[in-house]
Structures are given as structure tokens and as C-alpha cells.
Amino acid sequence: DYKDIRDLKKTVTYMKKDLSAYPSGEELAQIAGMSPARYQLAFRKYYGTTPYEYLKEMRLNQALFLLKNSDYGIATIAAKVGYDEPNYFGYVFKKKFGVSPNKFRGK
What we know:
single chain; mainly alpha
């Protein structure tokens, strides 16, 4: 219902505020005012994916933006979008987009 959607959107806004953070499922459920199980079900029903996958998508989309529009190094971009390990960030990026961050940037 409408209240659930509004409460779910609060958690997405919370995730967007700091893409480098790792909020727990319990933390997100608390923000939405739901039990963790209900939150997971409602999130999947409304967004068609899990909160973690949704966060990963937001992170990778922000990484694309930063690669196109900034001079930050790959390690800095990785950290800004929640990946402490640049090599793992490169792996996830390439798995999603088919090219490494360096190749995407044209270097």
C-alpha cells in the first residue's frame, strides 16, 4: 500500500545519502518501521530486487557518473561508492558492464 511505498522510499533515500556506507537489513527495516522479514518482502515486491542488489546498482551507476565526469582515480571512485578494495570494484564493474573501469574511461 501507499504507506509501505513511502516507508520503502525513505530507506532508498537513506542509502543514497552515503553510497559508501553498509547499512544492515535490520537498520533499513527500522527506518521503514517494519520487521526485517516484512521489509525484505515489501522491498522485493515494490522494487523487484533485494535491498543489497538495489544498493549495488546505485553504487555502480554512481561509479559510471564519476568515471565520466571526474578526474578521481579508480581507487578513489571505488571508495566513494562503497568498495574498499579497488580490484574487487573492478571485478564487479566489469561483470556488470563488460569492461573494466579503466577501459570505460578510455585509458
